[in-house]
Amino acid sequence: MIRRVGIVVKHGLTAATPHLKTLIDWLAAREIEALADDDTAALLDGAVARLVSRDELARTADLIVVLGGDGTLLGVADRIGESNRRVPLIGVNFGRLGFLTEVTLPEMIPALESAVAGRAHVHDRSMLSARTRLGHGPEQRHIVLNDVVVTKGSISRLIYLAVYIDAVFVTNVKADGLIIASPTGSTAYNLAAGGPIVHPGVDALLVTPIAPHTLGNRPIVIPGRCAVSIRAAEDASRDPMYLTLDGQSGFEFRHGDEVAVTRADRTLTLVASPSRGYYDTLREKLHWGER
User: Fold this and answer.
1) Would you name the residues annotated as active-site residues?
2) How many whole angstroms separate alpha carbon 101 and alpha carbon 67?
3) Res. 95 pLDDT band, cuts 50 70 90
4) How far apart are CA 90 and CA 268, in angstroms?
5) Residue 272 and residue 119: Cα distance in Å, rounded?
6) Is pTM beyond 0.70 here?
7) C-alpha–C-alpha distance, residues 141 and 132, integer Å
8) Dihedral pair phi/psi, residue 209, rounded to 5°
9) Rounded to an integer, what distance in angstroms lies between the CA atom of residue 63 and that of residue 23?
10) ∠73-264-190 over CA atoms, to 5°?
11) Looking at the DSSP assignment, which residues form a beta bridge with residue 260?
């Protein structure tokens, strides 16, 4: 039963204010508590919700509604992954390109009503587990939805990375960087870098070089059960590199550091649009068939 609904709005999205009131009034009429983070609270304009952090939202809400774009949803999704809870997400699209925030504003209340009634159509999306060892420090673990990326620093030089799959050396990649993506993340940075679109129902991992130095370094799709490890190649330069997790957080990635990426043992539940499917979204967002 859904008793608490978290609401997250993109920072500074004033256009969401009237829709927030509609949403909170709908919840209040059904005696469902509304929870809001700091960014959302700044836009309430008199509507009443309990103020909590985004981390607490992931730990306590039974359902979360995100108003914004895919980046806002990713920040919430990663917190849900870290919380190890099954919290459905409704992504309401205020941006131009919403592969994750696929519910439109007119669909917001119908989607919420279906979710509260337990009859919503949902997608379970696989997530990634990234285990990083930076220097001689302890291993860190992060759960992300879309991708783990290693890129060059501010100096405009290629980086040289060694790639291992299931502890077996595969290749050295000389490029601007390397993306390890989930099928859900295939339509994000991976797509911009020339990687393939992979249906989110496919059990796979994607390994995509960013602007590779040689044509031989091409994207590869591997089974989802595999583990991909990245480290600087033995003869790589000492130029700075960066490790980025879903575009939400990152660390400097030095010679001797390593990140290992596997499919996480949990999934993220997304409430689907009541009027469109996955291929409808692809066709709309990628302008397929247009002349």
Assistant:
1) 70
2) 8
3) low
4) 11
5) 11
6) yes
7) 6
8) -70, 150
9) 13
10) 55
11) 131, 229
Q: What mean pLDDT comes out for the span 67-79?
A: 94
91 falls in which pLDDT band (50, 70, 90)?
very high
Lay out the sheet containing 249-253: strands in order across: 220-223, 204-210, 177-181, 147-152, 241-245, 249-253
In this structure, the dihedral spanned by the alpha carbons of residues 36, 40, 43 and 44, taken in order and rounded to 10 degrees, is -10
The pLDDT assigned to 134 comes to 85
pLDDT tens digit string along 222-259? 999 999 999 998 877 777 899 999 999 999 998 889 99
Tokens 């409808």 identify what position?
A: 280
For residues 274 and 110, the answer to whether their CB atoms sit within 8 Å is yes
Q: Is the pLDDT of residue 208 over 70?
A: yes
pLDDT in tens, 156-197: 678 999 999 999 999 999 999 999 999 999 999 999 999 999
pLDDT of residue 97: 58
Domains of the chain with CATH codes = 4-121+272-286 (3.40.50.10330), 127-265 (2.60.200.30)
